[in-house]
């Protein structure tokens, strides 16, 4: 199974709807496939200039390292030189904070990742989780 455009739309649309229901700030959402290629980018009106880039860094970082955003955040705290090196290797396309969530199928196969940015990292993650669940897929936050 791959991340079809229809599946990406379910994830992104549900993530945006969740943000609106919870009164969050405007969100930017980027979904990448298992190789890090962008499948979908959606940016709400009023989203700050760099938020889509941050969302991309969250999603890309997750698939690049193979762990969720919470694991990347732990690595950044525990092994800052390692994460710094990964930042350079990825041409600064790595944002090691929550809000980046791996997307897996029922068998646990990695399909890609979603990155959400615009509110707090914890709230961004809530939106990503809602989107992945709505698509009937498994989320991996790196918890």
Automatic annotation (TrEMBL):
<protein>
    <submittedName>
        <fullName>Uncharacterized protein GlcG (DUF336 family)</fullName>
    </submittedName>
</protein>
<dbReference type="InterPro" id="IPR038084">
    <property type="entry name" value="PduO/GlcC-like_sf"/>
</dbReference>
<dbReference type="InterPro" id="IPR005624">
    <property type="entry name" value="PduO/GlcC-like"/>
</dbReference>
<dbReference type="InterPro" id="IPR052517">
    <property type="entry name" value="GlcG_carb_metab_protein"/>
</dbReference>
<dbReference type="Pfam" id="PF03928">
    <property type="entry name" value="HbpS-like"/>
</dbReference>
């Amino acid at each position: 199974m791959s991340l079809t455009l229809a599946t990406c739309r379910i994830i992104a649309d549900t993530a945006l709807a969740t943000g609106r229901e919870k009164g969050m700030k405007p969100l930017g959402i980027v979904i990448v496939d298992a190789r890090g290629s962008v499948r979908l980018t959606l940016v709400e009106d009023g989203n700050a200039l760099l938020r889509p880039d941050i969302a991309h860094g969250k999603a890309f970082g997750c698939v690049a390292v193979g762990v969720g955003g919470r694991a990347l955040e732990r690595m950044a705290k525990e092994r800052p030189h390692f994460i710094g090196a990964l930042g350079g290797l990825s041409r600064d396309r790595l944002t090691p904070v929550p809000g980046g969530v791996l997307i897996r199928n029922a068998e646990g196969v990695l399909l890609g990742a979603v990155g959400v940015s615009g509110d707090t990292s914890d709230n961004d993650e809530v939106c990503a989780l809602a989107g992945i669940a709505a698509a009937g897929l498994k989320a991996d936050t790196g918890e």
